[in-house]
Write a structure and sequence with these properties.
The protein is mainly alpha-helical and 435 residues long. Helices cover 71% and strands 7% of the residues. The protein has helices at residues 3-18, 22-42, 45-78, 81-115, 122-151, 168-173, 175-205, 210-245, 247-253, 288-294, 315-341, 350-358, 361-376, 398-429; strands at 156-159, 162-165, 265-272, 277-285, 381-383, 387-388. The protein is globular, with a radius of gyration of 23 Å.
Amino acid sequence: MDVVLLSRLQFAAATMFHFLFVPLTLGLAFLIAYMETKYVKTGDEMYLRMTKFWGKLFLINFALGIVTGITLEFQFGTNWSRYSEYVGDIFGSLLAIEATVAFFLESTLIGIWIFGWKKLSKKAHATVMWLIAIGGTLSAVWILIANSWMQHPVGYTIRNGRAELTDFMAVVTQKFAILEFFHTVSAGYILAGFFVMGISAYHLLKKQNIEFFTRSFKMALMFALVFSLFEGLTGDMHGTHIAEVQPEKLAAMESHWETQKNAPITLFAIPDEENEKNLIEIGKLPSLLSILSFHDPDAVVKGLKDFPKDERPPVFITSMAFKIMVGLGTLFIILTIWGFIRRNKLTESPKYLKIMLFSIPLPYIAIEAGWVLAEVGRQPWIVYKLLKTKDAASPIVTSQVATTLIGFILLYGFLGALGFYLIYKFAKMGPVEEK
């Protein structure tokens, strides 16, 4: 393996592991804020117990997100110094805003929330949780703006061999960034909803704390239902924009080889990239790709054969990631609608509860598949049409990257096992009465 591939593997391992925790933090913060607000408004101690129980799981998850996220930004200097040198004027400013404003705000408020139960009024304490949720979302805003710029660079000029910022507002308000933000954050809200529903389902199946977990389930159900539907809408909008600005990615997503009008969607395909065709095609739906991409059945969709081979993304990985993401997204809509129908008969619906318990991992898989699609589908570019990945890596020796890659895997494996064990332990234990 060469330095570029090893650096990509290292960054992918760190990023995908880190992103096991970020989406849950985003969504769970809002659910906990709502629970605490209900306590403030009603005085019902049940909502206070809910706030503290789900808050404990939130804090474990948040701590792991911090630990695994810090190393990511350092890799831009250690493994991707040529990238940092080339686009640091733009990318660095966005990361700096995220770290110095959103992240530190969120982290400081977390401390106030943990230690402020007896020092702040009920309203002030609940307000802190809302600010934590907003701070987490602001952090996501800047990270996703930075990623969107890599996907669709705007507001820059090339000067002295570097990309330099010329229009900050163009960067932060571009359509790609707005769509990516809503699509990604909605996925985090869905994950939080399924996380709460899955744990609640476990306790309802065990006939434990029925009222506590029924309320938790219903609250998370409505949250997940709304954002599952919204995710479908943003996915459609994002897909049409990708068709416009990243046509290679669109063609790879659908294993679409030939440029044509009335382009069909193939529900399942195994591509043969060497011979530029699909070995297996199952379920062709005429004109649907043209409709979904351009909202016009007669629209021409460019095929992979019309792009240079060295500018095509890996078709199999991109296509499979897309199919997994879309398939699971559709399943989430079905499961939440089913839950809405059965919401008043949860204890009489053991089959549905078992499905929701075992569905906890599914949003994680969908989110990771979405990021694989976004990042692999952009290849061979690290900044689309501006800088290739092979030209962005640091001039370091292979053994250095191989050593740190192994170190990351071992360390993150340990942290992940510890973190998920603690979440499992406290989730299974259920709410504990405070003395």
